[in-house]
């Protein structure tokens, strides 16, 4: 048994429900590795879990967090692809990334690429894999596609918009401030719309001469959903992959027909990475893109792991830019 420190969730609610505790960590079981974590990614999925929303609620009490980078300290029976001392990154598996040490199914571990630091890798692995499945497998983006991406200066948005720019798509971005607009422009977005100053639906229609875009990627949810549908061309695709502003009300199937025979999907990274070969292939694609410069790590804001309540409050209040990383 090893001593570790971990964030625990005893009940759902505001950031104050998160507690930082000493915990006993058993030896890794069959098919598991034990890692000493060096950097932990904070994602909006963690906030959904803390609130008790977004799919099946976590069984409580629970750990929190699904992404990290660390060094293997012990290996359980049956693990042959990794060794003690190896640096790995991971996405998925049982929640519990908010910890100094943890056990993890070896099937979720990815050999960390050289040349990317721990905080950088933690900032990009989950968000980069999210961008990868969204723009390469969920809605494959090609040269000359017209794409609207909401929250373009965030962690996923910064990665996806720059990657689509390198592909040759025309990228329409929404942001909430001039500072975030500058980030979106630096990432190659062709048209940047401040939703606090402009109606993004009207602006997209104006810029496309009434046609609309081919694809909308929307992680904002309730505040943007209807206008996002209205921003699509006929037979366009709406990719709704989050609900930062709140749950989306039920949508009648007939609405999609009335608005132009639209397509609507609600993807989850879990369903694009739960097969090991697909998970590894997505990571390989991401790491290649980083080496080529098609993907650049987003800006990083770091917090000590012990300050997890403040980190959650700042992300929830949209006071951060880029990716947030917790440091044990």
From TrEMBL:
Keywords: NADP, Oxidoreductase
Gene Ontology cellular component list: cytosol
Pfam families per record: ADH_N, ADH_zinc_N
Domain of life according to the entry: Bacteria
Name by which UniProt lists this protein: Quinone oxidoreductase
Keyword Ubl conjugation among record annotations: no
Gene3D superfamilies the UniProt entry points to: Medium-chain alcohol dehydrogenases, catalytic domain, NAD(P)-binding Rossmann-like Domain
InterPro entries (alphabetical): ADH-like_C (IPR013149), ADH-like_N (IPR013154), ER (IPR020843), GroES-like_sf (IPR011032), NAD(P)-bd_dom_sf (IPR036291), QOR-like (IPR047618)
Record GO terms (molecular function): mRNA 3'-UTR AU-rich region binding; NADPH binding; quinone reductase (NADPH) activity
Signal peptide segment: none
Sequence ranges assigned to domain Enoyl reductase (ER) in this UniProt record: 13-326
